[in-house]
Backbone:
């Protein structure tokens, strides 16, 4: 039973990581170019179409689920040495991505989208966008590496479990 839970916890973390990676790549190549191409006008117009849902309604809950599934995967693969470090590296990558978001991105989101040009100069907003983009690329890299690490961890875990099944079936013959 614990083996199945371990398998599905690693698989769940892999699945969530890939969803996160897809989401951040979508933001990077489709959403952000539209938001940041003509500051401050595009910051203001983007708020019109992000009234109901925005990246902020999507990423914080999904990031939390990713950390949660990563912790569970780490617990359940702890005894599987070939997979352990890869799962933990994936968890570390998503924690770093989340920390960068909370510490650096969220305050800049408030500057750009809540206070905006009513409070800040155009030059300050443009500088904030540059800072946002720099940190965003760090977040993209964390997501890419986190997804690669959990994929490797899943493969290592699966191979370990498969080899263990084969060895057990040979012993019982």
Residues:
């Amino acid at each position: 039973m614990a083996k199945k839970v371990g398998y599905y916890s690693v698989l769940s973390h892999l699945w969530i990581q890939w969803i996160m990676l897809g989401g951040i790549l979508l933001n990077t190549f489709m959403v952000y170019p539209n938001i940041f191409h003509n500051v401050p006008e595009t910051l203001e117009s983007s708020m019109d179409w992000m009234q109901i849902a925005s990246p902020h309604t999507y990423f914080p809950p999904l990031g939390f689920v990713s950390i949660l599934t990563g912790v569970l995967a780490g617990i359940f693969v702890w005894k599987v040495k070939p997979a352990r470090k890869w799962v933990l590296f994936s968890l570390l990558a998503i924690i770093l991505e989340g920390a960068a978001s909370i510490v650096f991105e969220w305050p800049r989101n408030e500057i750009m989208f809540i206070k905006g040009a009513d409070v800040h100069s155009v030059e300050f907003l443009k500088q904030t966008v540059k800072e946002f983009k720099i940190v965003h690329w760090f977040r993209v890299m964390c997501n890419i590496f986190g997804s690669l690490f959990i994929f490797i961890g899943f493969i290592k875990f699966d191979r370990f479990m498969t080899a263990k099944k084969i060895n057990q079936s040979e012993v019982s013959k």
